[in-house]
Amino acid sequence: MFIDISSLKKSYSSGLVKTEVLKGIGMKLEKGEIGVILGPSGSGKSTLMNIIGGIDSGDSGKVVVDGVEINNLSSDLLTEYRREDIGFIFQFYNLVPNLTVGENIEVVSNISKSPLNIDEVLAAVGLQDKKRRFPRELSGGEQQRVSIARAIVKNPKLLLCDEPTGALDYQTSRSILRLLQQVNKKYGTTILMITHNAAIAAMANRVFKVRSGEIVEATVNEVTVPAERIEW
Ligand code: ADP
Ligand code: MG
């Protein structure tokens, strides 16, 4: 198993009040698969993804990614894991406004060890002619394509997408999801994606339904639907 999580718990405390956000999560995803985490707002989806991506940590339980138990890594190895193995995509793109598209990809990413380069990933996301543009000159969908290019240029083992289409209209969402499917196929990148839109689950190999910090249902889709055929 590429991702193998068991009994993962996490609480946040504020003052005397302690809230258990993850109540013993278990989930598995194979290498090269697309997994979707589905659940309402506040159910713990981002917390779970942030722990998998090494930008937050669990209180107890096991999180194994590609054979490495990430909760046991030294801080140096954890930094290396985040920089080299993980690509992150967020709802609001998080591009640097005063840098061009090309510079956004170059500055934020760890390209030196990657077999890919900026021009190749810009072509892969359909923005080969936008390298010298600034984020404000692009539509929301194009900005999300830049953030995908930025995430994939280091050829990550795992692409984590936290509501990647949350700020986009349905048509644009379809094209972004299609692009993620193409990345998965072309580079063999394992993808884990958060959404609260049940329709998106049809494109995943595995679907994890989360309710208040627990996985209440895990399904395997024998057949996955191409993103352009998702019915909203
Ligand atoms: P989702 O992504 O499903 O909307 P989150 O994982 O963001 O859910 O949040 C789950 C719960 O944990 C929410 O109640 C949220 O307020 C709380 N929470 C998330 N991050 C923090 C934090 N850093 N400190 C305190 N509480 C947090
Ligand atoms: Mg969230």
What does this structure look like?
This protein is an alpha/beta fold and 232 residues long. It has a single domain (3-229), classed as P-loop containing nucleotide triphosphate hydrolases (Rossmann fold). The chain has 6 helices and 10 strands. The longest helix is centred in the last third of the chain and has 18 residues, at 170-187. The mean pLDDT is 95.
Q: How is the secondary structure organized here?
A:
Elements: E1 3-14, E2 17-29, E3 34-38, H1 45-52, E4 60-65, E5 68-69, H2 75-85, E6 86-89, H3 101-108, H4 118-124, H5 140-152, E7 158-162, H6 170-187, E8 190-195, E9 206-211, E10 214-220
Bound molecules: adenosine-5'-diphosphate (ADP) and magnesium ion.
SSE pattern: EEEHEEHEHHHEHEEE
- Mean pLDDT comes to 95
CATH topology: Rossmann fold
Number of domains: 1
Please state the overall shape, judged from the principal axes of the Cα atoms: globular
Full CATH superfamily name: P-loop containing nucleotide triphosphate hydrolases
Fraction of residues in helix:
25-40%
Q: What would you report as the Rg, rounded to the nearest angstrom?
A: 17 Å
Structural class: alpha/beta
Highest CATH level, the class: Alpha Beta
Instruction: Tally the beta strands.
Output: 10
